[in-house]
TrEMBL record:
UniProt KW rRNA-binding keyword: no
CDD domains on file: CCP (cd00033)
Protein's recorded name: Sushi, von Willebrand factor type A, EGF and pentraxin domain-containing protein 1
GO cellular component, one term: membrane
Species lineage: Eukaryota, Metazoa, Porifera, Demospongiae, Heteroscleromorpha
Native source species: Geodia barretti
InterPro entries, A to Z: CalX-like_sf (IPR038081), Calx_beta (IPR003644), Compl-Cell_Adhes-Reg (IPR050350), Sushi/SCR/CCP_sf (IPR035976), Sushi_SCR_CCP_dom (IPR000436)
Classification via PROSITE patterns: SUSHI
């Protein structure tokens, strides 16, 4: 069909579209309609439509009517960041990014969305760029742990073992201080060295307040001990990495209380005694001991009355007295003018502060008269057989003449189930008054090894003084009576050996004033292989016709080598034993080595 130019069909004008308008060239076939949108809107569809004849009697604009869809505005960059848009039409997106050193706060993307009133806008709000904090370094002798570097994140400091944080802030928070600046709050701490645990001291305690620089440690001593040195130490820093306790810790010195010998003077009508209690060491605090003593229960000895019961207190400090004297009355036994006036005080000590208590050796003074002295021997345990000890006392050592009658030889025996026996000796006055102390010597025989060997029992013999005389111990001699006979000298090896062991025993001549009483010579003996085997040699005793007070001889053991007998890989010790008493008095047999001699005073 050919459209005639003069043909006009029934075509109406087009209406405007929402948010836009239409402009037509006419309504005849071939005319056009052009659509435009208002500002802020985007045309969706064809902007032009043509009038087209659809049948002989009808014509219409072809296509569909476009629509005007709103547009979003062009977004601006945000401070310390930028925005990138795919467009401004509905459905387009805008993506935000922050400059280095800043964190994006808020959604990073927005979408252009049509509103209910026909407009369009980007969804949500624009995000912001918030500054980050710088990453913190570790500190000396420590480290830092970060939760992050954004505003609100924290940094926590810890120190290496042996150090503690000082100053600054242990936990710092990243804080924004201006639109473009953020920093961690506060200052970093420093790590300061700690002191090690303070050293312990012997016989004392330590009480620290802590191990930090400036902390103190206090030392104190156990009861019975005194602090020597500074009691308070301070933890001081000596370098960036070291702290030490200064000064050096003190030591604890034992406080000793010594009971001096009783001193006393008396007549037959009355007696007064006293004992000095002497402190050594300076106590840091006062301490007390209670001294008690009961009356003697020994016959013919003055009695202490009343019973001693005295609490004595030593004060603290270097200027405090170091001696306290205890005095006590004694009641006479009413025996007139005994040869010796004696008393006995049995002291006991209650010692709650646990100081060391020592009792001194006795001193004594007595009337210048004839009399007797009394001595005792004590063994430390029961034995399988009788123990016999030879006692020799020498003349007294007064200024002139002799106060004590010498006893050349005394055999004192203790039965197996007894621990103590006593003996007496004569005191012959030399008529010199006021000597104060009379002396005599006590000698114990033959001793080449400590202790007394009785069968399988090793028994220690102690000499005790039950009197008021001073006992002076001298080296023991080996006395025998002036008779002819034989003496036996034995030796013992200490362990089992692979076979018999030979040794040589020699004896030297005696040393009497007019010649030798003993035949010198060498004797070969053989030990069996069993442990503690004993071998003996018999030597002759020749009477020289002179009755000396004490006959002496020497015995020497000369084993091969330098004191030990070597049998294969075993070292065997040969020990000399004195069996001389058996030759003198067979019923009182004794195998004896050197006793451990000590004085026990009662």
């Amino acid at each position: 069909m050919v459209c005639l130019a003069t043909l006009q069909l029934n075509v109406v004008d087009l209406p405007d579209i929402p948010f836009g308008s239409v402009s037509q060239t006419g309504i005849a076939v071939g005319d056009t309609a052009t659509y435009t949108c208002d500002p802020g809107f985007d045309l969706i569809g064809s902007p032009t439509r043509a009038c087209t004849q659809t049948d002989p009697d009808t014509a219409d604009f072809n296509g569909q009517e476009p629509v005007c869809r709103p547009q979003c505005e062009q977004l601006l960059d945000i401070p310390f960041g930028s925005v990138s848009q795919t467009g401004i039409a509905v459905g387009d997106t805008a993506t935000y990014t922050c400059d280095p050193g800043f964190d994006l706060i808020g959604p990073p993307a927005r979408t252009c969305t049509q509103t209910s009133n026909g407009g369009a806008t980007f969804s949500g709000d624009a995000p912001t760029c918030r500054p980050q904090c710088e990453r913190l370094p570790d500190i000396q002798f420590g480290s830092v742990s970060l939760t992050g570097i954004a505003v609100g994140d924290t940094a926590t400091y810890t120190c290496d073992p042996g150090f503690e944080p000082v100053g600054g802030t242990p936990t710092r928070t990243c804080t924004q201080i201006s639109p473009g600046v953020a920093t961690f709050s506060g200052d970093a701490p420093t790590c300061r060295p700690l002191c090690e645990d303070p050293p312990e001291i012997v016989s004392g305690t330590v009480t620290p307040t802590g191990n930090s620089v400036g902390d103190t440690t206090t030392y104190s001593c156990d009861p019975g001990f005194n602090v020597v040195g500074t009691t308070t130490l301070i933890c001081q820093q000596v370098s960036a990495s070291t702290a030490e306790w200064m000064p050096d810790p003190p030591t604890c010195e034992r406080i000793t209380v010594r009971f001096a010998l009783p001193s006393y003077t008396f007549t037959e009508s009355g007696v007064q005694g006293s004992i000095d209690v002497i402190r050594t060491g300076v106590p840091s605090s006062p301490f007390s001991i209670r001294v008690t003593g009961g009356p003697s229960t020994q016959p013919n000895i003055e009695q202490s009355a009343p019973v001693i019961n005295e609490l004595i207190t030593f004060l603290a400090g270097p200027g405090a007295p170091d001696t306290i004297t205890i005095t006590f009355p004694l009641t006479d036994d009413d025996v007139a003018l005994e040869e010796i006036e004696r008393f006995f005080v049995g002291l006991m000590v209650e010692n709650p502060d646990r100081v060391t208590v020592e009792f001194g050796s006795p001193e004594a003074s007595f009337n210048e008269s004839d009399g007797v002295y009394r001595m005792c021997i004590v063994k430390d345990r029961e034995t399988a057989q009788r123990v016999t000890v030879q006692i020799t006392d020498t003349p007294g050592t007064a200024d002139r003449n002799q106060d004590y009658s010498p006893v050349p030889l005394r055999l004192v025996s203790i039965e197996p189930d007894n621990l103590r026996t006593c003996f007496t000796g004569l005191i012959i006055d030399d008529l010199i008054g006021g000597e104060g102390v009379e002396f005599f010597n006590l000698n114990i025989p033959s001793p080449t090894q400590p202790g007394v060997n009785v069968g399988l029992d090793i028994t220690t013999i102690n000499i005790i003084d039950d009197d008021v005389v001073t006992v002076v111990m001298v080296r023991p001699t080996q006395p025998v009576p002036e008779v002819s006979g034989e003496a036996t000298v034995c030796a013992r090896k200490d362990i089992a050996t692979a076979g018999p062991v030979d040794a040589i025993i020699t004896t030297s001549p005696g040393k009497a004033a007019d010649g030798s009483d003993y035949v010198g010579g060498s004797y070969t003996v053989t030990f069996g292989p069993e442990p503690n085997a004993i071998a003996c040699a018999t030597i002759g005793i020749v009477v020289d016709g002179v009755f000396e007070d004490i006959e002496n001889f020497d015995t020497n053991l000369l084993p091969p080598g330098t004191g030990n007998v070597v049998v294969g890989p075993q070292d065997t010790t040969i020990v000399l034993i004195d069996d001389l008493v058996k030759a003198l008095k067979a019923q009182d047999s004794l195998i004896m080595t050197i006793p451990s001699v000590s004085l026990v005073f009662h």
